[in-house]
Amino acid sequence: MSNLKEKLKNLKGDKPSKWKEDADYRLNNRWLEYSSQIARRIIALIKEDKELNQAKLAKALEVEPQYISRVIQGKENLTLKTIYKLSQALNHELISFPEYEFTQPNKVNEKIKWEVKIVNLSKPPVFKEFIH
Amino acid sequence: MKIVDIFVDGESGEGLYSMIYEGQPENEFDRLFNLWTNIEYVTFYCWDNKEYIETEYFFGYTIDDVINKIGLEAYELERLIKLKTEQNFAVPGNTLQQMFRPLNDKEGKLYTHQQSKAKIDNKRKFPKPILRMYAIRLSKNTFVITGGAIKLTHKMEEHPDTASEIEKIKKVKNFFSNNQIEFEEDLKLFYE
After folding, report:
1. What are phi and psi of A130, to 5 degrees?
2. Which of the listed ranges A104-113, A118-127, B113-122 does the model predict with the highest average pLDDT?
3. Fewer beta carbons below 10 Å: N end or C end of chain B?
4. B76 close to A (CB below 8 A)
C-alpha cells in the first residue's frame, strides 16, 4: 500500500460521494436545461405575486409540495400536461412557440408568431379562484 | 472533519478527495455541484447579491446573464472533471495538477499543503469564469476539496462567502498538519 493511501486511511469518513452517479445523470439528461428555464419563469412569477407561494401552487395543482420544490429546482421532467396546469395556475405562459414555416421544416423564424393561449384571461385565473 | 474519495487511483492513492465537515449531510464536492445545478439556489443567490453583480467587475452583464453563465460553467466544469475520471488523470497532458492551480496567481512554484483552486480555463468560450473550487494540494496530483464559491468580486476578501472559504482552507491545512499528512518527498515530481 502506498504511503499516501496508508496515511489517509484513518481520516476517511463513512459516507461515500454520490457525485459520479449524479454527474452521469446531469450530463446525460440535457432536457434539464429546459426544465431549468421553466423553473426560472415560475420563480420570477412567484416573486412578483406576493399572494403566491410554492405551497399554494401545490394545492392548486393537487400535488405534494415536494413535487413543486423539485419543479422549482429545475429537476423535474415535466409533461406537457403539467406545464399546461402550471400555466393555468400561474395565469402566465411558461413556454412559447416560434413561427414555423411548415412547408420548410428546417426554417424557424426568430420572432414568436403566437403563444398557445391556454389561459382564458377574461376569466379569473385558476390560482386566484383557489385562494379566494 | 473527515475526507471522502471523489475519484482516487486504487494503487497509488493519488486523485481527488473532498472534505466533509462536522454536521454536514454531504461532502463539499457533491454539495457544490448540487447547488450550482439547482436553478432555484442560483437564481436567489444572484438576486440576493444584486449589488455585487451591478458593479464594474461585471460590466455588461445583467443578473439574468450571470444566472445563465453559472449554469453553463457548472455543466462544463462537471464535464471536464468527469473526463478526468474516464481517462488516466496521471498522464502528462491530463493531470489534475493542470486543473488545480495555486490559489495565489503570483505563486510560481508548487508545494505541499498549497492553497489551490480550479476554474474553467477557456478564455474564448468562458471569459471571466466565476465558479471556483478551492482545494489543498496534498501530494503529487492529489488534492482535497475544501469548498467552493460563485466568485462575484475581484478579491476573495471582498465578499463574505469567498472570505469564509479562505478560513475553511486554513482550517483544513491545519487539520492535515495536525495529522502529520505531509509529503515533502514528492515535491520534486510536482512539475511532471
Report:
1. -70, -40
2. B113-122
3. C
4. no
Asked if A32 contacts A102 with a C-beta cutoff of 8 angstroms, the reply is no
DSSP chain B: -EEEEEEE-TTT--EEEEEE-TT-SS-HHHHHHHHHT-HHHHHHHHHHTHHHHSSGGGTT--HHHHHHHHHHHHHHHHHHHHHHHHS-TTSTTS-HHHHEEESSTT--S--TT-EEEE----TTTSSS--EEEEEEEEETTEEEEEEEEE--SSSGGGSHHHHHHHHHHHHHHHHHHHTT---GGGGGGTT-
Q: Do A13 and B20 touch (CB under 8 A)?
A: yes
Q: Do A73 and B39 touch (CB under 8 A)?
A: yes
The closest of B142, B91, B78, B81 to B116, measured between CA atoms, is B142
Q: Which amino acid is present at B20?
A: I
Task: Give the integer Cα–Cα distance in Å for A64 and A81.
Answer: 17
Q: What is the mean pLDDT of chain A?
A: 83
pTM recorded for the entire structure: 0.87
> Which residues in chain A are contacts of B139 at CB distance < 8 A?
4
Q: Does the beta carbon of B177 lie under 8 angstroms from any beta carbon of chain A? A: no
CA A127 to CA A52: how far, in whole Å? 9
How far is residue B101's CA from residue B122's CA, in Å, rounded to a whole number?
14
Contact A4 B4 (CB under 8 A): no
Q: How far is CA B7 from CA A10, A20, B18, B28, B121, in A?
A: 18, 9, 10, 14, 21
| Contact status, residue B53 vs residue B46, Cβ threshold 8 Å | yes
For residue B75 the three cell numbers come to 455543466
Q: Which residues from A are below 8 Å from B67, CB to CB?
A: 40
The closest alpha carbon to B133, from B13, B6, B41, B47, belongs to: B6
Q: What is the pLDDT of residues B24-80, one digit of tens each?
A: 999 999 999 999 999 999 999 999 999 999 999 888 899 999 999 999 999 999 999
